TrEMBL record, chain A:
Domain named ABC transporter: residues: 5-245
GO molecular function, one term: transmembrane transporter activity
GO cellular component terms given for this protein: membrane protein complex
Designated name of the protein: ABC transporter ATP-binding protein
Organism: Oceanobacillus arenosus
Gene3D superfamilies: P-loop containing nucleotide triphosphate hydrolases
From TrEMBL, chain B:
Record keyword Membrane present: yes
Stretches assigned to the ABC3 transporter permease C-terminal domain: 261-372, 652-762
Membrane topology: Multi-pass membrane protein
Entry annotated with the keyword Transmembrane helix: yes
Short name of one Pfam family: FtsX
Localization annotation: Cell membrane
Name of the molecule in the record: ABC transporter permease
One GO CC term on file: plasma membrane
Record InterPro entries: ABC3_permease_C, Membrane_comp_ABC_pdt
TM regions (residue ranges): 254-278, 307-328, 348-372, 424-446, 648-668, 704-731, 743-762
Annotated keywords: Cell membrane, Membrane, Transmembrane, Transmembrane helix
Amino acid sequence: METILEAKDVSKTFVIGDNNQQTILKSINMQMKKGEMVAVMGPSGSGKSTLLYNISGMDRVTSGSVRFNNREISSLSEKNLSNIRLNRMGFIFQDIYLLKNLSIFDNIVLSAYLAKNESRDKINQRALELMKKMGIAELANHDITQASGGQLQRVAICRALINQPDIVFGDEPTGALNSKAAADIMKILAEINEAGTTIMLVTHDVKIAAKTERVFYMLDGNIVGENQLGKYKESNNDSQIREEILSNWLRKMDF
Amino acid sequence: MLIKMLKKDYNRKKSITITLFFFIMLSALLVASGSNMIVELSNSLQTLFTKSNTPHFVQMHAGEINQSEIDAFTSENRHVKSQQTVEMINVGGSNLYLGDSSTPEVSSVMDHYFVRKNDSFDFLLDLESEVIEVDSGEIAVPIYNMQQNNLEIGDNVRVAGEDFEMKFTVVDFVRDAQMNPSIINSKRFVVNEEDFAMLQRNFGESEYLIEFLLTDLDQLTDFRNAYQSSNLPMAGPSVDFPLFQTLNGLTDGIVAVVVILVSLLLILLAILCIRFTLLAAMEEDYREIGIMKAIGIEQNAIKKLYLWKYVIIAAIASITGYLLSLFINPLFTGNIMLYLGTAEKSMLLSVIPILAVSLVFLIVVSYCMLVLRRFNKITVVKALRSGNIGDVQTRVTFLALSKNRLGNINIFLGVKDVFQRFKIYLLLFFVFLVCAFIMIVPINLLRTIQSPSFSTYMGIEQSDIRIDLQLSDDINQDFNNMLDYIENDRDVEQFSPMVTSLYEFINSDRNLEKMAIETGDYSIFSLKYLEGSPPLNENEIALSYLNSSELSKGIGDNLMLILDGDTREMVVSGIFQDVTNGGRTAKAMLPINEEAALWYEVSLNLKPGVSINEKMVEYSNAFYPAKVTDLEGYLTDTFGNTIDQLRLVTILAIMIALFIAVLITALFTRMLIAKDSQQIAVMKSIGFTLNDIRLQYATRTMSVLIIGIILGTIIANTIGEQLVSVFMSLMGASKIEFVIDPMLAYFLFPLLLMITVTITTLRSTASIKNTSIAEMRA
Ligand SMILES: Nc1ncnc2c1ncn2[C@@H]1O[C@H](COP(=O)(O)OP(=O)(O)OP(=O)(O)O)[C@@H](O)[C@H]1O
Ligand SMILES: [Mg+2]
C-alpha cells in the first residue's frame, strides 16, 4: 500500500510571551497508508490536536518534514496549502465550525463552489446525495440554528467530503455528542473509509478508537506507543473484543 | 474586579478608545473655533461700526447736488441725527495703476473712488482701526486691492490721464465699513485735501454719497420712505446699515457655519462610535456582568464603571479640543481681523466657546447614559445561559449561495453579509454617508459660485460682456453712439440695451414712493426667476426678492405706477434674486424715462470664436469712460475672496472626510475581524486563501461605501442644497440650485473614497493571516 502521509522528526514549539517557549511536539515520526483509518489517543494536553494541525498543514511545524502524497508540504506557501486543504483534505472538529450566515446546504457546497472543479449543478447533486446518505436531506434549506448537534456534525462531514478528499482529519468529532449520536457518526466514518478515504481521528473514546485500524498513543509530545488492531468489519461482530484489547493496552500505557 | 475590567477594556479596545477621543476632540475643537469665529465676527463688526461711525442710510448719486435742499430736508426730518455729503472722484480703471504694474485696472469690475477724510462720521480706518489721515502725495488703498494686487506699504499708485499724471505712495490700507466686501463693487481710496482738489480739476465728474445718521435705527424704513418720496438726489442705489452688517459678515459667517456644521456631524459620529463600542463591550462582558450581578454587585455600580470611562475620555478630549482651538483660531479669524479689525477681548469671547465645548461634553455623556439604560435589561440567568445580548438575527435563507448563478463566490459572500447583518454595518454606512456629504456639499457650492450662471442669482443676465454707462451730461448721446457701434459690429451675436430709471408708484399707504426700475427686452438674456417669469408685455413687472417682500407683493399682485402723470396698473409677473444695488430693484418694459435715468447698460453675446478679451479692450477704448466687464471677470472679482475661503474649506472637508473614512474603516474592519475570527478560521480550514477572505472584506466595505455614497450624494444635493440656500438667502439670493460638476462629484470624489477605503480595508485585513483554527481552541 502507498504511503499518503508521513511525518519525520516533527517538532512544534510555541512562543508564549518574550522568553517563554513551550515545546508541545518533540520528535514525531509516523506514517499512514492510503485507505487506512487511524486514531490518536492520549491524555489531555499531550499534543494530539497540535499533531493533527501540524501534519495537515493547518499550522506550520517548527522543524522536521511532513510529506503528503509524496510531496513535502511543511515549506509550501499559504496559497498552496489552502489549495491542498480545499481539494485533497477534509476536516471535522469537535466544536461545530460551520458558517453561521449560510444555510446548511450552502455550507456544504461552499468549498466545492470555491474549488470550481465541476459545474454547480453537479456539485449540488452530489451534495444532495451525501446528505441523503447521512440522513439529513430534509435539512437542506435550514438554518444551522435549526438542527441538533448530531445533525450538524453530519453536515460537517458532508462538507468535509464534498470535494472527495484523499484524507479526512477529525479532532474529536464525536466529543460533543451523546453515545448514540457518536456511534452513528462513527458508523458513517467507517463507511467512508470503506469507500477508500483515509481517515485520521483524535479521540478519547475507546469505543470509537476500537473501530479504527491502528491506534497511536501520545504522551508529552511524543508518540509512545502504537497498537495494530486490524481493519474493523461490522460483520465480524468483534467490537466488544477490540474494545477490551484496546482498554488493556491503554491501561498499560498509563491512560 | 471593577478596575480590572476597566483596564482590560482599554487594552482590548485601544484603537476605538483613541478614535473616540479623536472625534470628541475634533468636534470640540471645531465647535470652539466656529463659535469663537462667530463671536469674534460680531465683536469686530460692532467695533468697526462704532469706530467708523457707520452711516445708517446712504444714497449714492451720480450728478449734481444741491446741498441746501438736503440741509432743508435734514432739518425737517426728526429722525436725522446728522448728515454728511461725501464727494467722491470716480477714477476709471483705465487711469489707475496699482503697484509696479504697467497695465491699468481696466478689467477690474470695481469703481475706484478717491475721497478725503470725512469730518463727522463714516470714518475710513487703517489697519489699527484708527482714522486715516494722509499727507500730500500719500494714499491709503482698500484692503481689497491690497490683497488683489499684493500691495505693500511704500508701493506706488499712479493716476494717469492723457496729459496728466499723479503719483502716490501707499502709506496705509483702508478698512471701509461700507465698501469692504468684494461683493460691493465700489472701493474708496483716501488722499489728501490738496491732491483731491488736483484730481477734481482733472476728473471733472464727482459722485456723491449722501449719508445720514439716524437718532434711532428702528426708524430706518420710515426714513427711507421719506427720503425716497422727497425730491432729493437719488441717481444711484441706496444702501443701509443692516445691509452693511450682512455683507461684511457674509464670507466669514458662511465659513463659521460650515465649521460648526462639520463639528455637529463629528459629534454624531462620536455618538455612533460610543453606541457601537458600548454595545460591543456589553456583549463581550455580558457573562461577567451577569456574574457581577450574581455575586451581588449592584447594577448601578457596574453602570457607573462604564459611564466613568466615557466621562473621562470625553472630558479629556473636550479640554484638549478647546486648548487646541486656541492655537487654531488665528487661522480662522485671520480674514476677519484683516477686513474688520480686532475688537477688545470681551467676556463673551472666552465664555461662548467654553459653553459650546461643554455642550459637546454633555451631549456625549448623556448619550452614554441613554445607551447604558440597556443594562437594566440584563438578568443574571439570561446572561449566564446565553452569553449574548440578542445578536443580530440573521435571515440565512435570504440570498442563498446555491440559488445564485452568478459570479465570484467571495464577492457574493461579502455582499450577502452586508445585507444580512446591516445593523452591524450601520456605523460604517453612516460614516461613509457623512464623508460623501461633507465632500460633495462644499465642492458643489464652490462650483456653483464659480459657474457663470451664478450671476443670475445676483440679478445679472447671463451674457458675455456687459457695458455700464454712468450718468453724465451727454449720456443719451453717448448711449446712442454706443448702440450704433454695437449694432454695426459684426462680431456681436445679440445684444440688449437696458435703462434703469426712477419711477413713482403708489404704496400700500396710498402714498407716492419711488423705485428704480430697469427697462429692456427680457426675452434675450436669461435670468433665473425665483418664481414666475420675466416681464414680457407692457403691463408686467418683475420685482427683486427684497422689493417683493418689503412691498409684500407676490406673483399676480398689482402695482400702480405713475407714467407721464397717468397711473398704469402693473401685474407682478416674476420675482428674481438680486444682490446688486442694495437688492431693491425691478424689471419692466416701460417707455424710457430719460430725465430720471440712473444708469444705462448693454448686455451682449459675441459670435463663437470671437475673443472676449480683445473685444473688451476695443470697447473700453471706444466707449471711454464706460465700464466694460465680462461676466467671468466680474464673478472672480466679486467672489474671489469667498471662493478662496470656500476652497480652503473644501480642501479641509475632503481631508477630514478621507481621514475619517480611513480611521473608521480600519477600526471597523479590525473589530469585525476580531468578532468573526472563528468564521474566518473555518473558512481557512476548508481552503479559502487569505486573499479570498480579504476580497470578502473589501467587498463588504465597498458595498457599504457605495450605498453610503449614493445616499450621501442624494442628501447633499437635496438637504445640502437647501441648507446652502438658507445661508445664501442672507445675501438676497434665496434659492440656490447646485451646479454639479459630474466629473468631480460623481466620479473623482467617489473614486477617491473607494480607493482609500479599499486600501485601508486590505491593509487592515492583513492580520487575518494569523487567524487559524489551530488558534481557535481556548
Ligand atoms: N497556539 C498555542 N500557543 C501556545 N500553546 C499552545 C497552543 N496550542 C496548544 N498549546 C498548548 O499545547 C499543549 C497541547 O495542546 P493540545 O490541544 O494539542 O492538547 P490535546 O492533546 O489536544 O488535549 P485535549 O485532549 O485536551 O484536546 C497544551 O498545553 C496547550 O496549552
Ligand atoms: Mg485536542
